[in-house]
Amino acid sequence: MLSEIVKRELKRIVGEANASFAKEDLLCYSYDATNSPYLPDAVVFPSGAEEISLILKMANSEGFPVIPRGAGTGFSGGSLPVEGGVVVSTERMRKIIEIDTENLTALVEPGVVTWELQTEVEKLGLFYPPDPTSLKFSTIGGNIAECAGGPRAVKYGVTRDYVLGLEAVLPTGEIITTGVRTAKGVVGYDLTRLLVGSEGTLGIVTKAHLKLLPKPETTKTLLALFPDIKDAAKAVSAIIRAKVVPSTLEFIDSACIKVVEEHAKMDFSGAGAVLLIEADGSAESVEKEASTIEKICMESRASSVRAATGKYEVKDLWKARRAISPSLLKIRPDKINEDVVVPRASIPDLIAGIEDISKRHNLLIACFGHAGDGNIHVNVMYDKKNPVEAASAEDAVVEAFRLTLRLKGTISGEHGVGTTKSRFIEMELGPAVIDAMKRIKATLDPKGILNPGKIFPKANGPQKAGFAGAGK
Known about the structure:
Layout: H1 4-14, E1 19-20, H2 23-28, E2 42-44, H3 49-62, E3 66-69, E4 86-89, E5 96-100, E6 105-108, H4 114-122, E7 126-127, H5 140-146, H6 153-156, E8 163-169, E9 175-179, H7 191-195, E10 204-211, E11 213-214, E12 218-226, H8 229-241, E13 248-253, H9 254-264, E14 273-281, H10 283-299, E15 304-307, H11 310-322, H12 324-327, E16 334-341, H13 347-361, E17 365-370, E18 375-382, H14 387-406, H15 425-428, H16 431-444
Parallel strand pairs: 2-4, 3-4
Antiparallel strand pairs: 1-2, 5-6, 6-10, 7-11, 8-9, 8-10, 12-14, 12-15, 13-14, 13-17, 16-18, 17-18
Helix pairs in contact: 1-3, 8-10, 8-13, 9-11, 13-14
């Protein structure tokens, strides 16, 4: 619990209208997409780095936790106030400070919604590629904290590839500026890369200097239908093996196809799997790539491959793709969503292995995601009110992780660790690596006040959070 002195000081720092201790407000900041609520003691809405600095200095003095929060769209519990404390929401900090068309950069505050940034830079003929599924709601600060990816990562990479530098507040309250405004820079340690993907445990981002690209001249969207899921998986490998790099290469299995058909009123003609593929660039290169992709899909036993006609069909297809995750809950009341990644050549083995796990546990496991970079969202569908089924679902997740690691993959591609995967990190990381990470955390945050209980939770921490909710 916060003392009255702390509450008064929080109001003084951010302004009385920008601090709340009312339960109805705290409830709104108690959960993320894992649907595992933890009530904070306060929520504050600072306007910049100086106010956040004062809050963190007071937290170190008074010993209360501070939890950074963007839009709360995360899928690993990264913004959950698992030990109470003060949620620092960046939603007031949403200025696009500068778009530099000469140097192809943007300077933004962390509360800027990803979609809004993309829209603004595209008006100027520029392009910000990172496109998480939640891009119309998620913020740049949250994307940086989780190193968010998205469908375009196959060609363009993930958030960290576009962060040139940061203004951030360290856990002890110091305001630092990292990185450069140039294409190159190797002076000292790369603190920018350290902060990107650190899940709000090493600092709170208050400004981000981002790299932009020229907007591609044109884009072509292809829809390939496959009777058999294994053939679709093999087609993904064949496309990459042919040295074709589409801007997106999305995989959708039969269970996901069913919910897409119901949600979007689309007809996929009984397909066992679908690939949604885009090529972008110059008109000439796009036509050449699209022709090669179509040929490979047909040689891989696709029943049909067609180009989307017009921007409205393209929009509808992507709207349907982004609706898969929430729509899956129409099949079963609960799901565990994991975002594993394997080398792209191993996707057929991953899909075959997941099918075996599904059969052994008599559970529906729906798969979709960014096949072009090997990132598949594995959704174990179950009913948590059925204890036997719930236990079987947990076992299936562990087996899926073991399969992923056997295939030289990783258990989290873009969702982070947070609370949901913390008990599994020893499956992937060795003791020396984990110890090094803990020492970095302890050096920057000696009192453990910034976003505690994430990545390295206490032994009595929220061990079951990973099986509470939905996914991406």
